[in-house]
Design a protein that fits this description.
By secondary structure, the chain is α+β, with helices and mostly antiparallel strands. 45% of the residues lie in helices and 19% in strands. The termini are far apart.
Length: 431
């Protein structure tokens, strides 16, 4: 039997206890009996490997009383297991020629790691140890909690962070997207070990976890080790908390005074989730307005009118309702001119179709930016895991790219009229 046939036979043998298996586009996906999904992308270009262990847990699964618990829990995972303390975890990763870290975000929480490929199995064991056997010691919980509280407090002294936080609150109200993943100070200060343990037990169940591995590894070997480590875990019930809806859009303006040298102007509106058909055209619209040096905001507000130090537009991909945000940083004396100029740009995209050249450049920017972001194994692993957590699978990226290529000027104007007719405005100025 040829070597390739032997490898296939070995892989099929290893997959005997696996409930589902598929391979396409150089990526192998399998679901273990425990419910955990494993994704492997072989990339022998360099002797490195990256891991993303994601959990369907983030600000989206929090409440106002627990705001920030996902990120706090993640930081605690890499600060001690039943075998090692945080320093030993970091030293072990360093000996493998890599690193390990963890954090919470809006729709997910991630343990991310890299290692030299010769140490791939040891690093996978370390990732599993961090995820499955955290110690969460009381003293460390208090220290990490205090550290996060200081970070939250420091945000109050930064004009852009204040503007971002105020805009989230204005757009989302009681919806958990209303706060930064760091959480709220009054919530984080109350979080203790018992709350973290209960939250961990609720969300760290295999059916809500995805392991993505990208790099110089063999799929069959990774599958075998994943099955050994995660295959026998008890399935556990999947947590499905109800998420409050964001409040209806209304035209509002709020002004705040914060120490600093720059003023920040944010104008925003609710926008569709990543699965919505309007997602691709709104991404291209975002690039037309604020995507790089060729965008309207940069060329017209910054270069031609000299009204901005920094300017951009954002539309993050979210599982639930997202937001389009236009951002302009300017000198305090320019606020009276910069605000109306930004409104003019947002109105123009609604009333006039963009040129064919603008649309082509924006489409290329959207596709090229994502391609650039996927150059490393760490980002490849992230994309594999995130789209699986989002429920659309890694194949979504190919569909999304194809849809972006089809976006027309008429599509851009249509979504501009649909989503940018009513805006919330936040202006933060220095004392």
């Amino acid at each position: 039997m040829r070597r390739g046939a032997l490898a296939v036979a070995a892989l099929l043998t290893l997959l005997a206890p696996v409930t589902a298996f598929a391979q396409s586009g150089g990526v192998t996906r399998m679901k273990l009996p425990s419910g955990l999904t494993v994704l492997v992308r072989e990339n022998p270009a360099a002797p490195v490997v990256a891991y993303s262990l994601m959990v369907k847990m983030g600000t989206r699964t929090e409440t106002p009383d627990t705001a920030g618990i996902s990120n706090l829990l993640q930081l605690m995972l890499v600060r001690g297991t039943q075998k090692m303390d945080g320093e030993q975890i970091a030293e072990a990763a360093d000996r493998m020629g890599g690193s390990i870290d963890a954090y919470g975000d809006a729709d997910y929480s991630e343990i991310t790691a890299t290692a030299l490929s010769r140490n791939w199995q040891e690093m996978l064991d370390l990732v599993a140890d961090v995820a499955l056997r955290p110690s969460l010691p009381d003293g460390t919980v208090q220290a990490v909690r205090d550290f996060i509280v200081r970070q939250i407090r420091n945000r109050g002294d930064k004009p852009f962070d204040v503007a971002s936080d105020k805009m989230r609150a204005a757009l989302f109200g009681m919806n958990p997207y209303a706060w930064d993943p760091l959480g709220r100070r009054e919530s984080v200060e109350k979080l203790g070990r018992e709350a973290l343990l209960a939250y961990y037990r609720r969300y760290y169940v295999p059916g809500q976890m995805v392991l993505a591995v990208s790099g110089d590894v063999k799929t069959a070997e990774v599958v075998a080790q994943a099955q050994r480590i995660f295959g026998a875990l008890p399935a556990g019930p999947a947590a499905s908390p109800a998420v409050p809806a964001a409040p209806p859009m209304s035209g509002t303006r709020e002004d705040f005074i914060v120490p600093g040298a720059q003023a920040q102007i944010l104008m925003a509106a609710l926008a569709p989730a990543l699965t919505h058909p309007d997602h691709p055209p709104l991404k291209v619209l975002t690039a037309v307005l604020g995507g790089g040096m060729a965008s309207r905001f940069f060329s017209e507000l910054r270069d031609q009118q000299a009204l901005a130090y920094t300017t951009l537009a954002q539309y993050p991909s979210r599982i639930d309702t997202s937001a389009f945000v236009a951002i302009l940083g300017t000198a305090p004396e320019n606020v009276a001119k910069a605000g109306p100029a930004l409104v003019q740009q947002l109105e123009r995209i609604r009333t006039q179709q963009a040129s064919a050249e603008e649309v082509a450049v924006a489409r290329a920017y959207v596709i090229g930016s994502q391609a650039m972001d996927r150059r490393t194994n760490a980002r490849q692993a992230w994309y594999l895991a995130f789209y699986e957590i989002a429920g659309v699978g890694y194949e979504f990226l190919d569909r999304y790219t194809a849809d972006v290529k089809k976006v027309s000027a008429a599509d851009i104007q249509r979504v501009a009229q649909k989503y940018l007719g009513v805006l919330r405005t936040i202006i933060v100025q220095p004392k």
